[in-house]
């Protein structure tokens, strides 16, 4: 916001810092004209942001919870994603960034816990980014804001209050579309994004200590476009693939990863690729621990996959 | 008892249906006099909500009236040509024609300038031309050619012109309205006295996002003119069958509104000049353009009428009498022709000469569009992201691979 006076930040309660205090202090620094609260109208917020982006501004629109993004689904799918294409490049809304906290938080229940990322990976024209920690969040968010394409940026709600990490000061960006090898390994490739990367790291630690299995953990960072080369190179090396996400199994983004990697690495695979995901049910309240693809479930699947030889 | 209630309901529906679905036959207004080259007329009254109406006495010079005549006729002729090209299968896909509503966009452009931005629905051919685009760009876009407004990639519903702040036609009913509020934010931020115009129809007026946009625009005093082009039918549904309150100029509740005779270019011009002044000084305003989609080719011996789109004959939900009465009593082109001819400002032959010129322009545009190239196959992938992600298209033979980007 310092480097570009056309960057705006708005959403429900954003001027007060937002429900997760992500925008705390922005109003004091940049003023009411650039940092403001909106009514509770997601379709309107996103449509409004698209209009401002078409005028050459860089709006950062916050949807308070990813679960509330669905009223804006038409605006994202039909207005934002296709503006450049249907105008033959006359207009674009590349300045647009939509931030939304997603995922389980321990007690969120049906409407404050969902992971809707897969819906948005099915829309050519928008990019989808999901950081896995504070450092990643800073680098990827700055890149997303400056990216000349509309970006949907899902932030791991669980990590707002649990993650502690050194974050580079000043202007710091990470490239979109590049995966990060969070941990190198030789026996199996574990792929995740957002807060699930921490779960994969925990599972990798458990199977390393108890079973002597070496996991390579890949943080995808960006789902559209996703870094198929990094994942394929890893699977060609390990011969095994596990993908994990909190969202329900069926039609989740894990299916896309498994399909594309099977296509690319079929002859290198030594076991069927496996997905460890949420169940195909609404996100539960009291049974959240049973629903989630926990480190224990991941570790169990890793052991099972290693039994193929 | 039930039968009685049903009968009463039918009777009530029947009575309302006779009222021409809300379209009124209020005629052309009155000419007050001519002094030199300046004509003064009394336009039909404006209906207003939470605001005083502008004066109904308006003036226009001969040169202005001739220009309006040319603009209106050009748009009409273009749409009629599109209709014929569609029927000849030279245009495929969706196609929504604007004939009958021309006075709205011509009056709007007479009052605003190209620094003001416009966003509209899928019925956007005329908007593109009046924003400084060409008939060739429209026809070529309809035919999916590279000379089209969007290089042949958008089609009928998607014309854009950045250099004159035309943010285009949008395919989803009502979805352009919140974007219009966003455009208005940019005008407020820049503070150069510009306004954003967000246009939608009476069908879209019942969309929830319209009210979200009203609220945000009013809350933040954005210089936005919301324009409900009320042609009285949302596809095949008369306004009163779809809206509890078809007085769309009052639907902004806390926001001022005004209903204007959208068939009269002079009334429209007056309304927009007034609305712009209001919006820049005070914030958003709703304008209801009471128009009638007058779906008639100029040759009177035909019975073909334009409906909502090319797949709608337009005659199943309204009577032909209704259509021809409106055409005879309120047609926007005939109105200007009468103003010029009856008041001795122009000879009928002078207007015929304009028509001839416009016909030649449009025929030329059609020929040029027909000769223009289709987009290259690689356009399938371009303009999705700024830097295309790189995809492969299969050629005619399975081993032919075309890689782009």
TrEMBL record, chain A:
CDD domains: TPP_PYR_E1-PDHc-beta_like (cd07036). Its EC number is 1.2.4.4. Pfam families: Transket_pyr (PF02779), Transketolase_C (PF02780). PANTHER family: 2-OXOISOVALERATE DEHYDROGENASE SUBUNIT BETA, MITOCHONDRIAL, 2-OXOISOVALERATE DEHYDROGENASE SUBUNIT BETA-RELATED. This is 3-methyl-2-oxobutanoate dehydrogenase (2-methylpropanoyl-transferring). The keyword DNA damage does not apply. Keywords: Oxidoreductase.
TrEMBL record, chain B:
Residues 72-294, 295-377 form the Dehydrogenase E1 component domain. InterPro entries: DH_E1 (IPR001017), PDH_E1_Alpha_Subunit (IPR050642), THDP-binding (IPR029061). Its cofactor is thiamine diphosphate. It is an enzyme of class 1 (oxidoreductase). Its EC number is 1.2.4.1. The keyword Lyase does not apply. This is pyruvate dehydrogenase (acetyl-transferring).
